[in-house]
């Protein structure tokens, strides 16, 4: 069975629903990743050796937790977080449930990107701010974030694209979205039309997101 346009149109409501669920999952998990991952990445940077909030214990503990979560394959993380998912959303299937695992995976991923972006800042700029008596909050707000904004925006783009891939994987355990549609129709029913359509949708979505990320990054880069 090849590509059947009429069959695709018959399933279009299911495809549209799955696409909406994918955007829903990505939106929630990205928002949580930014809200939690951004400050986490900042803390990882400013507590490092030689920085103005140096703290070996905090740096070691947070670094270990971040590395531990990042080292777990996402499919295993999905299963391992079932009790937490059940507790938070009272369900283990559907887009809301999948968003829990996606968020947990995205937070340390984005935090490391933020930390890396901050490391690219000229240390002299930070030392100058410390020398004039700027408080840690002022340095973070007025020096670190403005200087690293281009890298952080690029990091958001990378995180979104990773979440697209992870959200498709969440379909394996009934997470909803494009991946769930591909598994239920494309894999179990040997429906090549759905498989082709879902792959095309994911490719187009990633291309659009990458272009938007690149454009935004260039727009805010005043160097």
UniProtKB/TrEMBL annotation:
Keyword Transport applies: yes
Ranges in coiled-coil conformation: none
Species this chain originates from: Planomicrobium soli
CDD domains associated with the record: TM_PBP2
Stated name of the protein: D-methionine transport system permease protein
Keywords noted in UniProt: Cell membrane, Membrane, Transmembrane, Transmembrane helix, Transport
Family, similarity comment: Belongs to the binding-protein-dependent transport system permease family. CysTW subfamily.
Membrane-traversing stretches: 23-45, 57-82, 88-111, 152-178, 190-209
UniProt keyword Flavoprotein present: no
ABC transmembrane type-1 domain boundaries: 19-213
